[in-house]
Amino acid sequence: IDGLYITYTSNQAQSLGNVASVTVLKGPQGTLYGRNAVGGAIVVETKKPDFQEVRANISGEVGNYDLTKGKVHLSGPVTDTLAFGVSGLYANRETYLTYTPDPSKKHKDYDDRGYKVEARWAPTDWLEVNASHYKVDHASSDSVPLTNDTPSPAFASLLTANPDPWETGVGTEVFTEMESESTKLMFDVNTSYVNWKTVLGHTEFFSNIFWDYDMSEEKLLIIEAVPNTAETDSLEMVFSNSDSGPEWLTWIGGVYVESTFKSQRTPIYLDPLFVGQQLAGLNPDLLNGLLAQLGSTGSSLNPEEPVNLVLYGGVDTDAKAAFAEFTIDIFDDFSVKFGGRYSDETRTITESWVDARVQNIPFVGATDYERVFDYAPQEATWTDFTPSFGLEYHINDDVMVYYSYATAFKSGNWNGLNINEPPGKVEPESAESHEVGMKSDFFEGDLRVNASVFSTEVTDGQAQILSLASGGVTRLENAAAYTVAGAELEVYYTTPIDGLQLTFAGTWLDGEYDEFECTGFDEETGLEGTFDCSGNDTIRTSDFSGTVDVSYRFNMGRFENEIGFGAYYNSGFWFDPTNNVPEEEYTKANARFSIYDPESKLKLFGYGSNLNNAVSHMQRFRQDFGVGESYARPRMYGIGLEWEY
Questions:
Q1: First to last CA, the chain
Q2: Exposure pattern of 434-467 as b/e (b: 16+ CB <10 Å)?
Q3: 470 φ, ψ to 5°?
Q4: Residue 391's beta-bridge partner residues?
Q5: Per residue, what are the HEC states of 485-511?
Q6: Other beta carbons within 10 Å of 246
Q7: Residue 584's pLDDT is what?
Q8: What does DSSP assign to residue 377?
Q9: Peptide linkage before 227 cis (omega within 30 of 0)
Q10: SS3 state of residue 443
């Protein structure tokens, strides 16, 4: 965001200001941006405060689920060389989840609020300084996995399933709260010989996750992350060619340094007495099995005694990198691009321990927490060089074809939260990507067609598994190799009917694990084990996904109007490498309208998303107690008013 790499952030941070552009870049991007990017980069630029004009933007919005949303932005000059800006954001709505045991009770509202202040100073014609600070607070129960769709066979008689969409039996005390804060200081120096940008950043992230691990109304096991914290300091220096250099050469290069400390404290609470009071035919052997997985092997569980554990892990990251990319125009219509990146990353487990309190059980012998496991600090360093290469050929002024080759390196890591074994090391992930494509305009720009075919091969890919064996938190493991190939097509057509525009964008994918002994849960027994996932589809890889959109702009008197209709289709995919947790195919229909008055600068707008109320998920996963899921948004609609000056 505005030149600063954000390690952890609320998704609303980009809303704090007038967004000037959003660029989505596919594939490895390590030769252009500070932290290495394996899958791609999203680059958000907001409008800087202006030295000549005051700018203001105020909007308000209401919608279903009692949505209330407001944004404000004000910026302008103080002197000819100094300008300031301030932005604010507020959004609140009720959750779309229904608590089935008592529908009159509501889970926590979706709530966003934040502010941003910024300053711009240009004391000379060759120096500009930009400073900004933002803070965003977020709370919601929507994104927490709150539904046990299908309890595992071992617990099917104990747990109540909630297979119906947007319904849950988990108590209203379950939710997530996050706070992200970021400060940036950027110096832009433009000389006759070189352009030079320095970005200093400091980012802090904090979250609490209150979660019922079995995801049912029976409170069998509570696992929380209270708190998650991360703090990052970064320095990036980027150099690029000036206008006085040779016209046939364009180049960019830089260095990036980052220091991040991330920690997580995870309390675990198992209350057999509460379970025993609620469930007929309670089988103590099941709870003894849980206790064994939670690290107290050799002890029997009295079904009337509670069990408490606290897991903690802290990981320190020191990342250093140097990168460069050069573009040489061999001919007027043919250019060659090449670059590379050197990465050096060290990750250290500074602390990893487990405290336990099991009342009246001999291995602790007290009601106070005692240190059960205390693992020694561990450190690992990974280095790599990742090159890139590309060709561009302009067939004519309207058609360009290209080839790109890129590689990327994703640092190794540690599984910092563990119960009864030392933190495990995760090896780095490497990616190699090839892409051939075309960008073209026809009929004097009325028809734009962009097409590409691509293939990415990943070695030692980092896969995720959620299991009690890792303390009920996500842990990483390495997939040996997998390949994703595909094609993409984008078509934008401005029709002969004035104001009518048609858009289509589609992606076809085929992903497969080449070789992978994966950890997962058996669909028939519900037990964790190791499976041969070789040949399985890669996760979240749809055979086809695409959008179509129709928009029509027209004037009535002084009013400028727009209406639009669209749809998104996804053919479905697998959420897990074992290919037993599916996302079924779905289609979502959307609509929008706006009426703008250029004299008052007021805009009335409205929208509807997922109007057909299609069911899809933000996540689904199989774990010890069954299939957990969090639902994506149902039908949403709203209306708003915006004023811009």
A1: 24
A2: ebebebebeeeeebbbbebebebbbbbbbbebbb
A3: -105, 25
A4: 336, 403
A5: EEEEEEEEEECCCCCEEEEEEEEEEEE
A6: 9
A7: 97
A8: P
A9: yes
A10: coil
| pLDDT tens digits, one per residue of 218-237 | 877 888 888 999 999 999 99
- 3-state SS record for 53-70: CCEEEEEEEEECCCEEEE
The conformational region for residue 526 under phi > 0 = left, psi -120 to 50 = alpha, else beta, is left
Long-range contacts of range 493-496, CB-CB < 8 Å, 24 or more positions apart?
A: 493/446, 493/447, 493/448, 494/445, 494/446, 494/447, 495/446
Distance CA 140, CA 109 (A): 6
Are the C-beta atoms of 170 and 102 separated by less than 8 Å?
no
Lowest mean pLDDT among 300-304, 437-441, 581-585: 300-304
Confidence of residue 42 (pLDDT cuts 50, 70, 90): confident
Q: How far apart are CA 227 and CA 264, in angstroms?
A: 6
The strand pair at 602-609 and 636-644 is best described as antiparallel
HEC sequence for 493-562? EECCCCCEEEEEEEEEEEEEEEECEEEEECCCCCCEEEEECCCCECCCCCCEEEEEEEEEEEEECCEEEE
pLDDT band (50, 70, 90) for residue 9: low
Cβ(336)–Cβ(381) under 8 Å? no
Q: Do the bridges between strand 40-46 and strand 19-26 make them parallel or antiparallel, or are there none, so unpaired?
A: antiparallel
- At 26 the pLDDT is 84
How distant, in Å, are the alpha carbons of 66, 336, 473, 552, 634 from that of 583? 29, 42, 22, 33, 16
Q: Give the CA distances from residue 267 to residues 146, 202, 356, 460, 568, in Å, rounded to whole numbers and listed in that order.
A: 18, 29, 10, 31, 40
**pTM passes above 0.70:** yes
Tell me the C-alpha distance between 54 and 304, whole Å: 68
Buried residues in 94-127 as b, exposed as e (16+ CB within 10 A): ebbbbbeeeeeeebbbbebbbbbebbbbbeeeee
For residues 481 and 513, the answer to whether their CB atoms sit within 8 Å is yes
* pLDDT at residue number 475: 82
Beta strand extents in 332-377 (DSSP E only): 334-358, 370-375
Contact between residue 200 and residue 170 where contact means Cβ atoms under 8 Å apart: no
Q: For the segment 449-508, what is each residue's pLDDT rounded down to a tens digit?
A: 999 999 999 999 988 888 776 666 778 888 879 999 999 999 999 999 999 999 999 999
Rounded Cα gap, residues 127 and 292, in angstroms = 63
